């Protein structure tokens, strides 16, 4: 494997819960609680998880929106989890961009497309004259397959798909190498989604972009990601190549998730794992259950699960799982103590 | 084997006066829900599926909306009914389950207050306070909420998304309506919770013999819950069939395109979707409204499409099936 573009090492993001007149800390929301993975250049890394699993917090921490509580984020030789390092290298913010879920609310309704696209160009001093900006904006619109006349339009005049293309153009303006796609097509109709995804994949090939792709649509994930990580209550439950994760899901949570996908044909029904009766809901990340946090909902839970939090392990070095059902996942010294 | 019809929408038209002109949205909708039948109405943003639901509930009012056609419910034409009588039907005989449980529940009243309010409007009259309380607890137990006493005293913010959706289902079912209209139930929730909600709805509805009109854009949800599907495009019904038939042999080019657009678990790539956009309702195309996007469009499509029966209970609004062999998308 080539040198990773981004390496996340044991990243933690906790939010304090404060209450009372003195705003004393009364608890902690463990939004991201020790996540590690790395992204190779040019790959699409999928992040799946239900609401409250911490996937958006993880993305915001990578983007610099939140300051990490602990852990490291290595990007091109810098630990950008450290805000001092991030400020020292303003070029880094150019390299990392984001496309949000709902273009209806992520685009300023009172700015024309041109004004929206001009902001990143000006902030990063990529253009100096008016004419240069106009040329650059026309080129960006062409990249996302929109006519240049659109630069004078307001978002309200555009369809959902067109708005999302503008949001993609805005992300591309600074020529980034890494883009976080946070549910980029969830607000769009399924007949429009395909064209946006095709555009994103085409741009990835042409510009050698690396994507962190967040979606709750597992069928879509199956078709766009090269690797997928499943997140539950701030931790990764499983991480594997897409085909391996969908074809041979190991973690009971992944199996429950995959077996719940609503599909449109018998043929697809057969591709799902054996049906797992869905039960329970994701608990609040402010009250994470002890031991393995999934144990109250797990159909395969046994004695050790409520007591000890499993660690991530892999049999083949690529398919990583964090569950006591698999060898290497029960911390050794604790397992020895339990045996004696 | 068609059950006796409970809700019958006949040739429903609805237009809206806007400052740019008259938007002709609903363009002759025909739809029937039989007694005890679970019917799905699928379509994409702006196709008019939610408008159809609002018309049934009598929420489209002049002067802004111009509604024409008939909506028969248990022997009465809802469009001809005075609003007083419509109020008696709405919430009692026809109940609604909305998509976003946070928006559908009042945040400043407890679940108990809101549920007891609904029970007080029971068609057979207001029950006594203890009786109402008992009924509330019973229905909360039926929707599988553990500790119903606590739920009764809770405010909506104190419940999880899945619990709130269960409360909404309880509120819709507590007065034993004949028809439940569900607008995207559970789509605001995660898949594992959505599946629990759909399983719950199916078992309750079957146990009580209710009719359901499920409105959604999610084809997978329709397939999991309904007996029969109507596919809507740009204000009219493109195709209807028993659910299994529709998913196995879709006939209308729009239905075929829509099904082909859904990313598949087999992982052969994301399909391109359907070219073009839904028409401008201020100036809809004459004839078939799908024609400008249709790969099989022909001169005949300039006229309104025929309503062709292709199989038992399987009808499609498309000239391709008007005494012609059926093509399929490649």
Automatic annotation (TrEMBL), chain A:
Alphabetized CDD domains for the sequence: ABC_NikE_OppD_transporters
GO molecular function: ATP binding; ATP hydrolysis activity
Keywords: ATP-binding, Nucleotide-binding, Transport
Membrane spanning stretches: none
ABC transporter domain boundaries: 6-258
Organism: Candidatus Segetimicrobium genomatis
NCBIfam families listed in its UniProt record: oligo_HPY
Protein name: ABC transporter ATP-binding protein
InterPro entries cross-referenced by the UniProt entry: AAA+_ATPase (IPR003593), ABC_transp_ATP-bind (IPR050319), ABC_transporter-like_ATP-bd (IPR003439), ABC_transporter-like_CS (IPR017871), Oligopep_ABC_C (IPR013563), P-loop_NTPase (IPR027417)
Biological processes, Gene Ontology terms: peptide transport; transmembrane transport
Organism lineage string: Bacteria, Bacillati, Candidatus Sysuimicrobiota, Candidatus Sysuimicrobiia, Candidatus Sysuimicrobiales
Family from the record: Belongs to the ABC transporter superfamily.
Automatic annotation (TrEMBL), chain B:
Topology term for the membrane: Peripheral membrane protein
One family name in Pfam for this protein: ABC_tran
Domain ABC transporter: 7-259
UniProt subcellular location: Cell membrane
Keywords attached to this entry: ATP-binding, Cell membrane, Membrane, Nucleotide-binding, Transport
Provenance organism: Candidatus Segetimicrobium genomatis
Signal sequence segment: none
NCBIfam families (alphabetical): oligo_HPY (TIGR01727)
PROSITE patterns: ABC_TRANSPORTER_1 (PS00211), ABC_TRANSPORTER_2 (PS50893)
Family per record: Belongs to the ABC transporter superfamily.
Domain of life of the source: Bacteria
GO molecular function: ATP binding; ATP hydrolysis activity
Biological process annotations from GO: peptide transport
Protein name: ABC transporter ATP-binding protein
Any Gene Ontology CC annotation: plasma membrane
């Amino acid at each position: 494997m080539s040198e990773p573009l981004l390496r996340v090492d044991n990243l933690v993001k906790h939010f304090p819960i404060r209450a009372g007149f003195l705003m004393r800390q009364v608890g902690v929301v463990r939004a991201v609680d020790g996540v590690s993975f790395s992204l190779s250049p040019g790959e699409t890394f999928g992040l799946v998880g239900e609401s409250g699993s911490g996937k958006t917090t993880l993305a915001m921490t990578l983007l610099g929106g939140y300051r990490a509580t602990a852990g490291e984020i290595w990007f091109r030789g810098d630990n950008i989890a450290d805000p001092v390092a991030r400020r020292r290298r303003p070029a880094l913010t150019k390299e990392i961009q984001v496309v949000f879920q709902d273009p209806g609310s992520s685009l300023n309704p009172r700015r024309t497309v041109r004004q929206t696209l001009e902001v990143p160009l000006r902030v990063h001093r990529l253009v100096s004259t008016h004419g240069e900006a106009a040329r650059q904006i026309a080129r960006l619109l062409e990249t996302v397959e929109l006519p240049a006349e659109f630069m004078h339009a307001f978002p309200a005049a555009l369809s959902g798909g067109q708005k999302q293309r503008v949001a993609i153009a805005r992300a591309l303006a600074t020529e980034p190498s890494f883009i976080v796609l946070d549910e980029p097509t969830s607000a769009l109709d399924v007949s429009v989604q395909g064209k946006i995804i095709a555009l994103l994949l085409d741009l990835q090939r042409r510009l050698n972009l690396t994507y962190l792709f967040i979606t709750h649509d597992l069928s879509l994930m199956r078709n766009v990601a090269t690797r997928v990580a499943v997140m539950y209550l701030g931790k990764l439950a499983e991480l594997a190549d897409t085909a391996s994760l969908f074809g041979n899901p190991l973690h009971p949570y992944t199996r429950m998730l995959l077996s719940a996908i609503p599909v449109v044909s018998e043929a697809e029904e057969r591709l799902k794992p054996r049906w797992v009766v869905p039960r329970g809901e994701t608990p609040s990340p402010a009250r994470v259950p002890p031991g393995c946090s999934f144990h109250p909902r797990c159909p395969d839970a046994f004695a050790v699960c409520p007591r000890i939090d499993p660690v991530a392990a892999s049999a083949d070095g690529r398919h990583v799982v964090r569950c006591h059902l698999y060898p290497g996942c029960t911390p050794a010294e604790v397992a020895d103590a339990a045996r004696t | 084997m068609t059950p006796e019809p409970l809700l019958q929408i006949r040739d429903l038209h609805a237009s809206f006066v806007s400052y740019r002109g008259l938007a002709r949205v609903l363009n002759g909708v025909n739809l029937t829900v039989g007694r005890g039948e679970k019917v799905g109405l699928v379509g994409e943003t702006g196709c008019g599926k939610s408008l159809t639901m609002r018309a049934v509930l009598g929420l489209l009012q002049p002067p802004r909306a111009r509604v024409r056609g008939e909506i028969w419910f248990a022997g009465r034409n809802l469009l001809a009914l005075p609003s007083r009588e419509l109020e008696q039907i709405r919430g009692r005989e026809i109940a609604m389950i909305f998509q976003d449980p946070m928006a559908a529940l009042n945040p400043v009243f407890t679940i108990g207050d809101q549920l007891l309010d609904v029970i007080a409007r029971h068609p057979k009259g207001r029950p006594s306070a203890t009786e109402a309380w008992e009924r509330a607890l019973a229905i909360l137990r039926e929707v599988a909420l553990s500790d119903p006493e606590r739920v009764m005293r809770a405010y909506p913010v104190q419940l999880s998304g899945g619990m709130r959706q269960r409360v909404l289902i309880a509120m819709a079912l507590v007065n034993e309506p004949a028809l439940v209209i569900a607008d995207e139930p559970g789509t605001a929730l995660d898949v594992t919770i959505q599946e629990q909600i759909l399983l719950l709805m199916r078992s309750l509805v079957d146990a009580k013999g209710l009719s359901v009109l499920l409105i959604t854009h999610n084809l997978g949800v329709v397939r999991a819950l309904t007996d029969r599907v109507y596919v809507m495009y740009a204000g009219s019904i493109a195709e209807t069939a028993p659910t299994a038939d529709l998913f196995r042999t879709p006939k209308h080019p729009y239905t075929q395109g829509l099904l082909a657009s859904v990313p598949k678990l087999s992982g052969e790539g994301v399909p391109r979707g359907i070219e073009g956009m839904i028409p401008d309702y201020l100036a809809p195309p004459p004839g078939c409204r799908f024609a400008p996007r249709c790969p099989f469009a022909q001169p005949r499509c300039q006229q309104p499409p025929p309503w062709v029966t292709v199989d038992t209970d399987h009808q499609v609004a498309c000239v391709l099936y008007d005494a012609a062999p059926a093509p399929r998308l490649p």
